[in-house]
Please model this.
Amino acid sequence: MLQQDYLFPWLTIKDNITLGLKTLGKTKQEEMNLAFQLLETLGLSDKKDHYPAQLSGGMRQRVALVRMLSTDPKLLLLDEPFSALDYQTKLKLEDLVFTTIRKHKKTAILVTHDIGEAIAMSDRIILLTGRPGRIKQEFILPDDLTVTLPFAVRGDLQFNPLFQKIWKEMESLESESQGDANTV
Model:
């Protein structure tokens, strides 16, 4: 699931969400039904005959989520999936994606530059260095935060101290990389 939904504008929502299944040769009705059930779960079953241009950005991202989950992948890669959305839609979609991933027992890797989003959506955070990317530090989140909806995590008393800790590590990483650039 990418920053942009990359839905095919000439295909209906129904055709967009079943495209991956058709590509994989999964055209049995029960395989297709998973996509339609997911669309209903995400509140978009009434939009299946619409085209992407007829939907809001948040709706389009939900369709992209359905398209991704309908193929039943073992691992989900979420690359800045909320960055193109307004803040309110982003917060709602974080909760929706979080609960959907948990419900379907999927493993997901979220790539983000947003510390708050990382804390709210993750059970661990890996801070990478600049090019070439190497692991700088790993933060394991408290168990009670990892089972709480992202919106509620942002209001938890543990959120701000954790945010500040990660922020400081990012600042030190930035200082190190600037020091390296000055010595080259």
